Amino acid sequence: MGGIAVMTSGGDSAGMNPGVKQFVEHCLERGQRPFLIYDGLEGMIDNRIKPASHRDVSGIIYKGGTIIRSSRSKRFFDKNFRQKAFDNLCNHGIDKLVVFGGDGSFRALNVFYGDFNIPFIGIPATIDNDIYGTDYCLGADTALNIIRQAIDDVRDTASSFKRAFVIETMGRDCGYLALVSALTSGAEICLIPELEYDLESLGRRFKKEVQAGRTYIIAIVAEGVKFAHQLTEWLENEIGMESRLTTLGHIQRGGSPTVHDRLMGFEFATLAVDGLLEGRSGEVVCYKASKMIYTPISEITSGKYKINQLHLKAGVKLTR
Ligand code: F6P
Question: What pTM was estimated for this model as a whole?
Fold first, then answer.
């Protein structure tokens, strides 16, 4: 019987540890031989691969990040290194692979699958929540809760000082984190790559509101818009309110996984192992319309994630 290996790849996200724990425990329960690949694609190239036991994954369920670490690999684009990675798997007797990762990792894995046809199942995991084909990616809920806490805290100081605060969120080119945070924190402004914004209209609105007694403004800006500094200056100069910028940065990637991410990690990992043992391959476990489904990797890498229409419609009001 061949072994099944797990790897976490790309930006780490909360929920990976609960997922890795369930992967190992479910493999053992089903009489399989689980392996851990350390350091993502880089570790697969450099043979940092070890058999896993219960002991390796005990006490990790509440931890953020990923205990098997991660990487973004340039070398994996080179066929010679992919061959090396495949040889390493063969030498350990590994013939199935589970990968937690984002868009970039799945594109890389799709190429690897094309090269060697090794059975693998992907698990969407990125705080950006921007993978086509799934409504949810592991780690987004924990990141949203960290952002929510930060906005609530900033509001305390903003209201105490009559200030405008711009809060920049991560998300790469996707506005999901910023938009959901703005809608659930009652922000006044939200700028995301998916929506055009109108500074003139915002200017007219806030000048009126300040005159009518508004004392502070909370603006959420997605990093993909690249406008957080400019908006902070604009609020100070155009609206005439003392303004500060808070860039949340990598704290959004950390933190103990929420209950939702622990449970999603559990479900994704269970279905990944079960899927492989049923003979599935080259697929990603997706969460779609409140159901777990398997979707071919080729489909996942062929499209662009779109934010929920209802949320986008509500977001338009925060851009003008
Ligand atoms: O994809 C996750 C993410 O945190 C993005 O939101 C962000 O743009 C990027 O990774 C940051 O990458 P790095 O950790 O390599 O600086």
Answer: 0.97
